Structures are given as C-alpha cells and as structure tokens.
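Researcher: Please predict.
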Amino acid sequence: MAASNHTSPAVFLLTGIPGLENAHAWLSIPLCSMYITAILGNCTILFIIRTDPSLHQPMYFFLSMLAVTDLGLSASTLPTMLSIFTFNVREVHIDACIAQLYFIHTFSLMESAVLLAMAFDRFVAIHQPLRYNSILTHATVARIGLGFAVRSVLMVMPTPILLRRLQFCFPNILSHSFCLHQDVMKLSCSDRRINSIYGLFVVISTMGLDSMLIVLSYVMIIKTVLSIASKEERLKALNTCVSHICAVLTFYIPMIGISMIHRFGKHASPLIHVFMAIVYVLVPPVMNPVVYSVKTKQIRQRIIQKLQRQNTMDKS
C-alpha cells in the first residue's frame, strides 16, 4: 500500500456531487439545459451582431468577444461534466486533464480582459462621447482583443509545463467535475511551491489588475455622470452600464469565491467546493447573453425582429 502511494497515477478521478451520486442522471438534465442555454444564447448574440451592420460598433464587438470566451469556457468543461453526470465516467487521463485546465484558465483570463475592455468602452462613451468613434476605431478594437487574447494564452502557457514536472500520488481524486490548476496541484506529493507562486502571480497580474482597473473606470464614470446637469441624462448614461456591471459581478464573485475556498477553506464541506465550481464555469456563460438580450435595447429589438420574421415565414 505504501508503494502504491508513491506510484504516479495515469488518470485522475473526477467528483460529481458528493452524496447525490444516485441522482447524477437526473442532475444531468438541468446541467445539459444550462449548457444548451449558454451555447444557444451566445451563438444568438454572435449571429445578431454579425448579420446587422448597425451593430458593427465597438460596444458590440466587445460583446462578441465576451460571447466567444463564454463559448470557449463552456466547451472546455462540457466533456467531463457530461461524462460524469450522464455516463458516470469519472476517469480522466492526466494529459487530458492538464489540457482541460489550460483552456479553462485561458478563457477565464480572456473573459476578465474582455470585461476590462468593456469597462473602458463605457468610460470613453460617457466621458468622451463626441470622440468615441475616433478613439475606439475598428483597428483599435481589434488590437485590444488580440492583445488580451495573446496575454491570456502566454500567461497560462507555463502552467502545463510546471504541472508535468510534479510527481502525483494516490489518492488521485479531484474535487470537481473538471480540472482546475489549484485542484490538480494539491494532488502532488512533490514540492509545488513554484506552481503555487506562479498561479498566485498570474491571478494578481491579470484578474487582480483587471478588477482594479474596472473599479477605477467606474469611479471615473461616476465622476463624469455626476457632472451632467440633467437627471434624465445621468440615468440614461448609467443605464448603459447596467448590463456590464451584471456581467462583472457574475464573473468575479464566483471566481473570488472558488479561489478563497481552495486557499482557505480546507475544512469546508465538499458540497460548497462543488457548488462554487459549477457556478464559476456555468453561470457567466448562461447569464451574460440573457442579461444583454434583456437590458440592451438594440440586441433585444433585433432578436424580436428575427423571431417575428421567422414566424411570418413559417406561416407563409
């Protein structure tokens, strides 16, 4: 038994919802519904923006980037989530696990970056409305998107290399239905200080910095809004930020929660770990298209027009 503890496992074992293993087949129904909602919702946003020339503006280009990152995040977690809840297959090969966590963390960093870009977009729109189109040209938006994508890819790239140098031991049971760097790292029986330090560095230099800049953007937005004389104009300006604020809260609150639990909640119930992880990877991709469809007038009107047109064609 002692020898087996020092034998590196070829696979990790995923964890569903502790205590509800017999109900996994039933739980797969709402989970599949959430994935379908996320995929259809974000694809609808992309389709509406792509096919309507009047929406070819910086705000909607950034919204398209957000939809793409949400689709990437959903696609990254979908295989293992469905395998354990639908087919009760818990095993995931180490290489597949490392690849999955790479994509999960890359798309998470991309989402944080896109939210920062959207905050900057709202600041420019409110603070410099007459120069909005000259500041955020199509080329500038493309460079911002490319720069943030490259940043995310490069920042996470050392993670698989650092994980491969570790020796993993039994027990080889992960805390979630998908692989995260913090979770896999904990299974190592060798020195993982470099992994821990680098992981903390990535979080602080990307999501930590992004969140501080988002807060700073809204401080500047509020200062600008308070300088507007008309109450109606102030409300109108703030209303354009509601969808983005919801997206920021939907992303950062679960992300902070799961990070705190992994670092300080060693004695917390496994159900809390599982619940926070599912919220972290599923709620933003589901809620973002819903919020933007409801709160953004232009998107809402285009969706209604498309549905009415399709309904008319079906009747004819």
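Model: The chain has a mean pLDDT of 87.
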